[in-house]
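I had to read the description of the data format several times before I understood it. In essence, backbone conformation is discretised, so a fold becomes a row of integers matching the chain in length. I therefore recommend that a typical entry be quoted early in the introduction. For illustration, here is how one protein appears when written out as sequence plus structure tokens.

***
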Amino acid sequence: MTSKDGDFERLFRGSARLGLLCGALGVPWEELSHFVAAFPGELNDYQELSVDGDAMGLMTRGGGPEFAHRVAHFMELRGVPEERLRRFLATARFFEHKNLFFKVEADASGITECSWYLRRRPDVGAAKAWLLNDGVGGKDLRIVDQVADALGKKTVHFLGGSEPKTGQPGSKVYFSQPDTTESWSRLRAAAGLLGVDWDATVEPHMPLLVDHTAFLSVGFVAGLRVPGCKLDVHDVDLRACRSLLEAMGRWDADKDRYRTLLELAESGERDPRVDYLGITLQGDRVSRLRLYASLGG
């Protein structure tokens, strides 16, 4: 194969599909084209699309120092401060540049946030040290131990950082739970520690969620814990999405956008499913709902 042929093989082959989703959401394609140009080979191997109302996310994954430095360069061009870039690169190096996920979020105004995640399953102590280095301390740091104990975990599944175009950067730790009924009892206890009213938010939808693998994440911004938590539930059918959206009063407004995502992901018409359903919980309400679909290039 010639060098020219090799370059062609690395061209991103999902542009038409991505363009259709951008059109449905009113997201300017020109903004995402910079991401596509920076990571064409990785997007051919793995891409995850997500939709939340009129906003969308596009994520890929890779590994190795070269990929990490391309991620850092992309964030630098988006105005991420040098201190935050050094923190990202130091974290990626510590975890051997493996299982690195990189995502951009966008709406009608363009790209609004860059975020990265490392799936390396560090122990809780290492995750706390990383958060401490980011300015998290006191009771907000102790809650990580309490949540880990409630979930029966000695490790975190992911840790990651977010770099919004406006506002303060953030950090997150994710805990995993297997697909058992007992897991959901543990998730309920952990969410309660984080101030979530489970009966008002999750319990009405439990028949559609229980026995699915789930992740619970805790976020921090400017050294302080973000109220509530997020649940990411794996392999959920559209009935659960509709149930939650109707409870939020958003099904009629958002259903066509979510169906566009499922059609692009070629999810089955009789049993349409999303790879993940992201449920952000704050107090007695579901504040955000995001649908995720993983695709090839």
